[in-house]
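Worked problem 6 (solution included).
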Amino acid sequence: MAYNKNSSPNSSDASRLLADGFRFLRFPEPLESEFRSDHRARLRGWNRIAIWIAACTVTGYAILDHFVLSAEHARITNLVRFGLHVPAVILMLVLTGKRFYNRWYDLGIGIIAPVFGIGTVVMAAFSPPAEVPLVGGRVLLASFFFYFMVGLRLREALRANGIVFGALLVAALFHTMPTDTATYLLFTLFCANIIGFAGSYALEHANRTAFLEHRQLTEVATHDGLTTLLNRAAFEDQIRGVWQQAQRDRQAVAVIMIDIDDFKAYNDHYGHVAGDDCLRRVCGALRDAARRRPLDFVARYGGEELVAVLYGADRAHGENISQCLLAAVRELRIPHAASQTQPYVTVSIGVVAVEAYRMASHDAAVELADQALYDAKNQGRDRYVGIDADAQRLVPGVGRTPRDERLKEASGQ
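Solution. The predicted structure is:
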């Protein structure tokens, strides 16, 4: 599974949804997929308990039916119970196992739930007229069970109950049960669905709100408040995960170090308020230009120094992105009268691409990208310098080969 923890999310997503609301209980991607994954993981234990409750309920009704109901419908009832309900419960228990849960539970329960409910309708439809209300009442239990017990989201629970309601309506139209009893059951089931819908909506809305609030707290803890980029601590956590993923997949990773040219002079000349605004604009442009793939991310490394990590990127791709970063900042045309390079804000960039599986950690790649950044600054700024590194020699504190062997300077002008 691809590493995606806090993959540079837009820090305004959770805040915006909390402020604007989400009446239709759906988030924009990738938040929706993340919510579903989180919701499914948190409910696994509860879902397993709920299925055991269903098993006990099926067993209890089997015992009660033997003593309370007549034997006229025993054949159909037992056929449904042992041919459908019991296998359904067993299958649901299997789907709550670790091996199948994440991949198959949602799909399986979305199919099994309405089939289980239809089986209950069939049992009621073939019961003697006097016993239809007794058996039909179980449909109400199934309805609430689908809304609240098996981890179905509102849309899926509503679909399952809609199918069961349709099955009961078909049974009534074909006069398989007394008309007055069928009408009474239909109305009762309709009211149960209204109550279940309202309760399920409130529950899912609360779950989604809690998810967004947790997400918002996570963003505050992992993102820089000024630029909304990942902060230094989150960068270290993120790059470790990406590095391990790249090692497993035998992929290259490009590390790009970026520094705003003469930023201290900008602050001294225009003031710190203007400096903060400049930093925000530059960081936004760099984030948009750098993130081309799902695992790419940009972080604030410290002060006006930034870092971008590109997963599965060779040197050519890293240098291409570096050119895009230079152009993105130039196109902002932020005036910089105190600059010794250009009359507008520019950046210097150092980039290195390495085969992650040849290294124990990312530290050497960051160090070499930092070396390249300082070479870019020493060579006149407003440019990138790409390192042509021998990955087998990349270990922390080692690899300082002569410049003519490891550096290739490419001006972005």
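Discussion: The first strand starts at residue 252 and ends at 260.
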